[in-house]
Design a protein that fits this description.
Layout lengths: L1 E5 L3 H11 L5 E5 L14 E6 L7 H8 L6 E5 L18 E3 L5 H12 L7 H8 L7 H5 L2 H10 L5 H8 L3 H15 L4 H11 L7
Parallel strand pairs: 1-2, 1-3, 3-4, 4-5
Helix pairs in contact: 1-3, 3-6, 6-8, 6-9, 7-8
């Protein structure tokens, strides 16, 4: 699977590409939608769109990607807008990442959506749930960080391995694991791992 970064920031593109290369077969970056070659092959792509550096271009990106098979989009939200302002993109994109997200968190989001998981900010998920919008359990009850922990539990990762993967202290990883178990009403990590493995297909199973 390929990862594509669309950002007007050269630094953001460089950092993301360096991190994404370890997890995707091929990576590309473009500084705008117009810079993408006309016959670019979008199939089986994860697109990371930096909305903060390209204000107003989200509709263009979604228009280009509409109907493309096995294409999923991660939107890095602008600091000028809160999560609810992006509610119109729900159902069209796979992940909406808060402005405070780190490069590591964006890359983890790309890996999660590659397996079909949808990630929404907590405040947006809460707002939508009031209107009975159907969403996966992972977006209703877990934070973005906890969703990542659940995904790694599905691969049988220990707390220490989860901590290394997410750049956390061991104690912080243990806290997130306990929180995931509590929110999902599960007695142990084995139950959570089985749930995670059945929730979505494994990364790279396309």
């Amino acid at each position: 699977m390929r990862a594509v970064v669309i950002s007007a920031s050269g630094l953001v593109s460089e950092l993301l590409l360096d991190a994404l290369k370890a997890h995707f077969e091929e990576t590309n970056s473009f500084d705008s939608v117009e810079a993408v070659p006309q016959h670019f092959a979008w199939e089986n792509c994860i697109t990371v769109f930096d909305a903060g550096s390209l204000p107003g271009e989200a509709p263009k990106v979604l228009q280009v990607l509409a109907g493309v098979k096995h294409q999923r989009t991660v939107v890095m939200m602008s600091t000028r807008l809160d999560a609810v302002a992006y509610s119109g993109l729900v159902g069209q994109v796979s992940a909406l990442m808060p402005p405070s997200s780190t490069i590591a968190e964006i890359v983890l989001a790309a890996r999660l959506v590659a397996s079909g998981i949808v990630i929404l900010p907590t405040e947006l998920a809460a707002r939508l749930s009031k209107y009975d919008v159907s969403m996966p359990v992972v977006t209703q009850s877990l934070t973005d960080r906890e969703a990542g922990v659940l995904y790694l539990l599905g691969f049988g990762f220990s707390d220490k391995k989860i901590a290394r993967e997410l750049g956390l202290h061991d104690a912080t990883a243990r806290t997130h694991v306990r929180s995931v178990l509590k929110k999902l009403g599960m007695e142990n990590r084995t139950m959570a791992a089985l749930y995670a493995s059945r929730l979505e297909p494994r990364l790279g199973a396309e």
